[in-house]
Amino acid sequence: MNMLIRSEQEKDFDQIYDLVKNSFASAPVKDGTEQEIVNKLRKSNKYIPELALVIERERKIIGYVMLTKFFIQGKTQKFESLLLAPVAISTDFQNQKLGTELIEKSFERAKEMGHTNVIVVGDPNYYHRFGFRASIEFGIDNMEGLPTQYVMAYELIPNGLKDKMGRVSLKL
Q1: Closest Cα to residue 66, out of 105, 114, 94?
Q2: Rounded to the nearest 5°, which phi and psi values hold at 37?
Q3: What keywords are annotated for this sequence in UniProt (predicted)?
């Protein structure tokens, strides 16, 4: 199967909107607004175009991942981080490791750009395979009171979260 991973382009936005909406329709954990969140993030100062990636097959987008700027609020300063959200794969192509390919490619690009860590809210059974651990293990709590096992952090480089303790707000 001939596939291409590339940065999203403005001409892709409608296809991405539909992909995210449809791929989350049957997801066990969702709020139904994931596609709207993507649009909102694109219009914010958190958007990093190089870290919004698609997998394309025969000019059709079948997968999507987005990493955006995010901050950990310490006692006296903010620490930059990235938020991984969403990861969406067309229902016809799920369970083929395409999400893994997208996440790994986005992490590779993020490291090349000098980023050191990533935060995600999701299923620990899925995200632990990438090396994510409960963010509380790094001294990072969330302001919304979400169960700590669902808010996870990952160091893109060794010690990427060293001395970056604090709290994160998961509201956009």
Answers
A1: 105
A2: -65, -40
A3: Transferase
